[in-house]
Prior knowledge:
mainly alpha; 18 helices; MROH1 protein; HEAT_Maestro; Leucine-rich Repeat Variant; Maestro_heat-like_prot; elongated
Amino acid sequence: TRAASVHSAMARHAGPRLPLIVKNLIPTLSSVFDSQRITTTAFFAELLNSNVVNDLILLETMMDNMTGRQKDTCMLVRMLALRGLGNIASGSPEKVRKHGAKLLASMVNGLDDKDDPHNLVALEAMSSLSKLLDHVEERDIQSMLLHIAIRIRPFFDSEQADLRQSSIVLFGNLTKFSEDNCEVFFEQILNGLVTLLLHLQDPKPEVVKACKFALRMCGPNMGCEGLCDMFLNHLREDRSLHYGEFMNNVCKHLMQSYPEMLNRLILTNLFYFKSNWVDIRAAAPMFVGFLVLHVDEDHCQQVDLDQLISGEY
């Protein structure tokens, strides 16, 4: 917050002097003191939120310095560097297209950060990715699309609500780029579908909102008009959801369009029979019940009754 207010004041009153200020601060990014590197990185990150850096031809210099902080030994510096790179989407959105590949590579590196016990770097990478995706060239994201989708999937069930929310929103945003990889990405949608539907019962409203968004985005890629219409009409942010009735109809469409998916959908649900969240734990067997109710006899043999009765994944 302090860096944000300082940056705002700098942008308003110290514009012409900013190049010199930035030049004098750059050496502190290599300081032996974590506190100095953190403070300067936070300041640069907030400065990148303003178009003033573009006007003063500072963007490339600051972007290169933020990219260079990705190997910093201090986790907070790495996190703030990603925040700064993501802020380019609001400060200089027209430059994101030009530097898209470089910015996306930085975010993927952040997702793969090996020294991030609380996933703060990954969280910043996901938030920044969602901001950048509106401005990048499609060709720049295509080569990374599958890797990102697979990498963020475990966060859907994180104990941390902010990780659940950010990963699910990012997944929804990724679907905009799935056309050229339709079959490959459809598989990722199927992998996440049960989780997204169950987390409509998440205890955190912000996660429920994220799931609604992601499912609305997934709908057009699922090849089932009825399901797409349901997601668009019933999962609007301003509309309350009658979950049981909604899931009954969802399962009807799923079994009409993908009856061969029955066992796979059931197995994923079994995993949630022991969920820590009581509403999700209750939703999973209901989901299974509706699937079995709507599948035709020809596909019933897919169901392993012993496994289902025991509730073991």
